[in-house]
Predict the structure.
Amino acid sequence: MKKILFILTLFCANFCMAQNMNIPPTAVPIMLQIHWDEPGGMDPEKPRSPIPEIYYDDHTIYFEDTSHVAYTLKLVYAGVVVWQTSVEATATSVDLPASLSGNYQIRLSYSPDFYFYSGITL
């Protein structure tokens, strides 16, 4: 019985590790918040989405779930978009320009009025 339990534990540990293989152990989680500029309540046609789990390490953003929707990733400084790119739904990571340094707001946008955001220091 102990042998079966041990093998089952190893299987579960390997499965959990396989889920996050693209994320390096030094990556820092980014705690995203929701921004939505839609007065008058929730639009029934607006798609609902869980808050994505993303991480960063140096100038690379990693996605926990590789079945996310497509986003526009933006870096914003003082209200101005200084860099942006499209992120495909199957992307596991995005490299940010190495020339950027400092404090930025990172945005994962569905649309101009609905996006996830957080602060990031490069």
Summary: The first helix runs from residue 2 to 19. The longest strand covers residues 103-111. Confidence is low (pLDDT under 50) at residues 10-19. The CA atoms of residues 27 and 119 lie 15 Å apart.
